[in-house]
Design a protein that fits this description.
single chain; alpha+beta; four-stranded antiparallel sheet; 52% helix
Amino acid sequence: MMAVAVIWGSALALYLLFRLWYDNWSGPLKADEIDSFIDATQDRFEASGNNVSVLRAFLEADDGREFIMLNLVKAQMDDVKDPVTGQMVQGLSLLQRYSKRFMPVLFRNGGHPVMVGRKVGGYIDAWNTEGDPGWTIFGLMRYRSRRDMVKLVMDPAFKEGHPDKMLGTLATFSFPTQRVLSLYLGPRVSSAIVIALGAAIAHIIWLSV
């Protein structure tokens, strides 16, 4: 019985560790955190044509919950000058290099891609909106919290990769969302299933010995 307790106890501990990483335990952002972040990034946001007041409103409305960022991107398919090597490379390759910097920082702060895909046709149903600029890819990125988004933007690896993003992107827009309906099993459920399955297999192996 001791072995059984160890197997299932370890499985429970592993799942609890996962939830400690995956869930936000720090609550909503505080006013001083928001002010500090805006002061540090305002010039960067305004230089790319963004309205800082929209960002501030989103941060001030923090409810401490996770959210999904919807990103639409029109990649630069022509050659541009690589800011590191000085050579001419396809802009898309710089966007891919930026993603390689972005993803580890996203994971480190409890985030992950939900879905990434490429566009395979023009607008099928659209009205009262601007014409399709030629979007290339879309991405849904899960953030553990708005605080974790702030941490990501302030991370040195993210800031170092920002020139690659700018050179590799002709147009983009992003806005935060929260799920209302979802038919896929999220990591909380799928990780529990995988861990429980592993523990069950270990249990069966122990019984067969």
